[in-house]
From TrEMBL:
Domain of life: Bacteria
Any Pfam family the entry gives: PP-binding
Xref: InterPro entries: ACP-like_sf, PP-bd_ACP
Carrier domain boundaries: 1-78
The name this protein goes by in its record: Acyl carrier protein
Length: 81
């Protein structure tokens, strides 16, 4: 399965968690990612905001469960003006 934001999300997660990008798949649960904790999750969110140039509202974080959800959110952020 492919997603237009998968390479970007893989890079962001890889840099934040220090894991190889090729081990990050859309179906991976965020909570199951190696080295994930609240601080590293915040680093991922800050990197997504920097990438998109948009702020992420806290209520948009609650439904995030998988890497694919992160990719969908980043895609949505990049498409809004």
């Amino acid at each position: 399965m492919s997603h237009p934001q998968l390479p970007t999300i893989q890079r962001i997660i890889s840099e934040s968690l220090l894991i190889p990008a090729d081990r990050i798949a859309l179906e991976n649960p965020i909570a199951g990612l190696h080295n994930i904790d609240s601080l590293s999750f915040e680093m991922i969110i800050v990197a997504m905001e920097a990438e998109s140039g948009k702020s992420i509202e806290p209520e948009n974080l609650m439904p995030l469960k998988t890497v694919g959800d992160l990719a969908d959110l980043l895609n949505k952020l990049k498409q809004t003006s």
